[in-house]
Amino acid sequence: MRSRLFSLLVLAALAAAPAAHAEVVPDEVIVKYEDGTTASERTASRSDAGVGIKDALPGGSQQVTIEDGKSVEATVAELESDPRVAYAAPNPIARASAFIPNDPGPGNFGDWQKVQWNFLGPTGVGAPEAWAIANAAGAPGGKGVTVAVLDTGVAYQSRGRYRLSPDFTREQFVSGYDFVDDDKFPNDENGHGTHVA
Fold first, then answer.
1. What is the Cα 48 distance to its own chain's centre?
2. Helices (DSSP H) in 68-191: which residue ranges?
3. Quick one: DSSP state of residue 183?
């Protein structure tokens, strides 16, 4: 079921998805060596690849700097071809979103953060990042976005025993599909999908 309603869940998924051309730290790579690789073997591998160690990272990875002038992509490829290397990858740049909407919630500014546990934190959907992406794309609040709601359906129409939810108008929806019943009527038999939408 696709809906023109703003959905934080899908926008957050877009925020979390890796970009095709993610911004990376120039002249840096993250590398992890296979277990059992000695310190002298790691030094030899870095020398062969033209990199120098910058910092040790948690989990046994290393942040290295490219010293021979090669590109990040070429250096990653060279390191990955080394049998001593478990993995090598560009060092991505991550930015914290500075945008928090001025939704007052049930009381004071920012109260929504206290009651909407699913927006923030390690179990959250990344709502602030999604809002920032929508703003940057010229669609504050998700204006003009078509969102797919993959759930139990939605109360998008009055048909048979089903009724259009008073929270929606029929014009807010585009054609959907019920993959469980294999038909073009994704009516909500449970209520959860309508809640999510």
1. 35
2. 72-80, 112-115, 127-136
3. B
pLDDT band at 77 (very low <50, low <70, confident <90, very high): very high
Residue that the structure tokens 């989990």 belong to: 59
Residue 179's CB is within 10 A of a number of other CB atoms, namely: 10
Q: Are 84 and 60 in contact (CB under 8 A)?
A: no
Q: Apex CA 51: angle with CA 47 and CA 57, to 5°? A: 115
Mean pLDDT: which of 24-28, 141-145, 150-154 is highest?
A: 24-28
Query: Is 154 in contact with 43 (CB distance < 8 Å)?
Result: no
CA distance 19 to 10: 15
CB 109 within 8 A of CB 58: no
Tell me the average pLDDT across 97-113.
Answer: 59
Look at residues 12, 11, 9, 7 and name the one whose alpha carbon lies nearest to residue 126.
Answer: 12
Q: What percent of the chain has pLDDT over 90?
A: 37
Predicted model pTM: 0.43
